[in-house]
Amino acid sequence: MLRKAVAAVFALMFFACLAAAADKEVKGKVVKVDAKKNTITVNTLDGKKVYTISDETKFVGPRGGVSDDGIKDDRLKVGAEITLVIAGNNKTVREVRLPMREREEKKK
User: Which residues are bridge partners to 83 per DSSP?
Assistant: First the structure.
């Protein structure tokens, strides 16, 4: 009986740690992009936050295509609505989901 109780407690702790380490999505508007420092400043519901972009960060368009331009993609500009996939450590950006590209008529 005691073994089952101890095993159940360890199983609960294990699954709680997995849930805490899961990736999360953060939506917000781009405030600043600094390609030299590899950072993106985003205004979220929790306020303004600065996220560091690594070499492993993927930049994905709205249709699932991967951007080869990375942080220098033309869709990543001030005011753009983006979604970031943040690792469980709250520091690493795994993925940046970019908005649709504006058409030429709208730019003029």
Answer: 27, 97
DSSP 66: B
Number of domains in the chain: 1
Structure-token pair, residue 29:
């508007």
Q: How far apart are CA 46 and CA 74, in angstroms?
A: 26
Q: What is the pLDDT of residues 16-64, one digit of tens each?
A: 555 555 678 899 999 999 999 999 999 998 899 999 898 899 999 888 8
CB 57 within 8 A of CB 40: no
Structure tokens at 10: 């360890």
pLDDT digits (tens, 9 = 90+) for 80-107: 999 999 987 776 789 999 988 877 655 5
13 bridge partner residues: none
Q: Please state the pTM of the whole predicted model.
A: 0.71
Residue 10 lies in a domain: no
Residue with token string 């702790």: 13
- Among 69, 92, 68, 93, which Cα is nearest to 82's? 93
Q: Which domain holds residue 88?
A: 23-107
